Amino acid sequence: MTDILRRHAVTERGVSDGRPMVFAHGFGCDQTLWRFVAPAFEVDHRVITFDYVGAGASDRSAYDPDRYASLDGYASDILDICRALDLRDVVLVGHSVSATIAMLASIREPERFAELILVTPSPRYLDDPPGYRGGFSPSDIDGLLQMMDLNAVGWAAYLAPVVMGNPGRPELSRDLEATFCSIDPAMARQFAQVTFLADNRADLADVTTPSLIIQCTDDVVAPRFVGDYLHARLRDSELRHIEATGHCPHVSHPAETIATIRAYLRDREGVSNVAAG
Amino acid sequence: MPGGVLFLAPDLRITGANAESAVIAGCAPDSLIGRPFESLLTAASAILFQTHVFPALRADGRVAEVFLALRGPDQESIPILLNAVRRDSPGQPAYELLFVRILARARWEADLLASTRALAAEKAASERLARDLERSAAEKRRLDAFREAFIGIVSHELRTPITTIYGMSEFLRGHHAGLDDVTRGQYLDDVAAEADRLRRLTENLLVLSRAEGGKLDLSLDPVLIGRLAGRVVDSVASAEPDRVLSLEVRDPLPVVLGDEPFIEQVLRNLLSNAVKYSPPGTPVKVQVVGDGAGVAVRVTDGGFGFGDTPPDRLFELFYRTADAKRRTGGAGIGLFVCRELVHAMGGRIWAAPAPAPASSGAEFGFWLPAAGQEVPDR
Question: ipTM strictly over 0.95?
């Protein structure tokens, strides 16, 4: 059990007997990206954040290209952590590709999860004409992989500010005790391939856990069409468009993101209380 | 200012731009204001920006030297190097971006990437080459050792019978008138025996050189192995009148698939070994037994056996046990040739101590597969 917690650098905060809330980071960063949102739930939840293997403070030696050759391997990570901590009635928050991973985990062990919070999700990033507009063509994804390779050439330079810090900024120095958005380039590359070539549209019908879809304005990675598509196919789902622009509302617009999740959980609590009463 | 400068609001919309940034992006400066920054980027760069660059910028306060590509007015890709900082003071833009167009450097980085890959490929190729060289060196060492041993055998094992034959026939030519019939007969028997030994050795060497060259051609035909064994035992018995050779053929035997001259060569080799490595007067037994799937031929002698030597070693080329070397000459080829031939015919070959109740001696045997249904009757 501790092996799994160490493997994923699992962090627990908040109320130890509160409702568990697990935050899964997306492609491109690590658990530190939740630090603008997750602390807001520590007052009344048991808040769990973690890194996928290869990202952040995870045990990078545990990276297994076969296990992570599909999103199922990542879903297994979430289930491993939930089992290790014996979590029930979980609110599972997944950003971007982790929204899909969260759905896959909930399909495999639906009894464990109470709510899915899907932040800027997409079940398929590639277009599939004529009916589906994921936003990208295969050549876009090739371009992304090439761009990642090129940035990996200067990877040290890319990470330099993270490592060197900023002496004039004490809050950043403090933050530097942890590493931000640090990812193993080889892991990031495979994660990109698996993420952007995945097609999980067929899995949507198997999701039984109620879900909140949070969609941003002008998100090039998960365009509006995709949000509507998901909402139409996920049973018991709610779709919220928020003012935030871009793909990372939990980073760019944390207050709005927190308020949206809070409102949803409050409404859902009302629903389950009514159902219970 | 040689680079493009952009100011962004917290929602990443452009609030200010210098003239150079519009030049690099290939559009009018005013048209930039109000647009989300990632709308200037290619799709690939927009993903990288949203998933990697912006989170790092937001979390760390700055990013440096990120390679991205703008989308030009004709959808062309314009490589840039981006540096950005976050400003937290109210009334200031949230983010300040500085970027330079980097055609030369983009090419340089692409070259670097390509040469990194080429280097990796070259390394793999040279490692492969080194392995091949090592393999050919090992092969050469093996061939050298083979040639050396071969020359040693040719010089000794071939020369010995030739010397005997030559010497005896010379003697007979000079003295035959003075010899009685019995003595003359003995000399002629010796010449014949040495000639036969020479013939067998030559046949083995032929098989050996073909096997080494990978050109061991054999034609597999149905063979009645019981009859063949009878012929070989009779022939060896007449050449070795002092020895007691017995043959047991347990009928019915299936017809085996093999190359008849080669089967005969195998059996002759085993029989001559049995005779050679056992004292006069001890019996040599040949047993031919079918088992449905094929036929096993066992040659058992009452000799001194092969002691603790692992049986497989006996079939190695040029291998002879210390005991065998001490007792008699030999090339160490016969059993190797037997193994090559039997394997080439799809059979098995083995060595074992002679079965109980014998207290000494060895059993050498081979098994060949039955011809089966697919072979036409003759």
Answer: no
Q: What is each CA distance from B282 to B243, B275, B302, B308, in whole angstroms?
A: 7, 9, 6, 22
Q: Where are the beta strands (DSSP E) in chain B?
A: 4-8, 14-17, 62-71, 77-86, 95-101, 221-223, 245-250, 256-258, 284-290, 294-300, 348-353, 362-369
Of A140, A149, A248, the CB nearest to B55: A248
Bridge partner residues of B364 (DSSP): B299, B351
Contact of B113 with chain A, judged by CB distance below 8 Å, is answered with yes
pTM above 0.90, yes or no: no
The residue of chain A with its CA nearest to that of B41 is A220
CB of B74 less than 8 A from some CB of A: no
Q: What is the pLDDT along chain B (378 residues), one digit of tens a residue?
A: 568 899 998 888 899 998 888 888 888 888 899 988 988 999 999 998 988 888 888 877 888 888 889 998 888 888 888 889 988 777 777 899 998 887 766 666 677 777 778 888 888 888 889 989 988 998 888 888 878 877 877 777 777 788 888 888 888 888 888 888 888 888 888 888 888 888 888 888 888 888 877 778 888 889 999 999 999 999 888 888 888 899 999 988 999 999 998 999 999 999 999 998 888 888 999 999 998 799 999 999 988 888 888 888 999 888 888 888 877 777 788 898 999 999 999 999 999 998 887 778 899 999 999 987 444 333
Residues of A serving a catalytic function are: 96, 219, 247
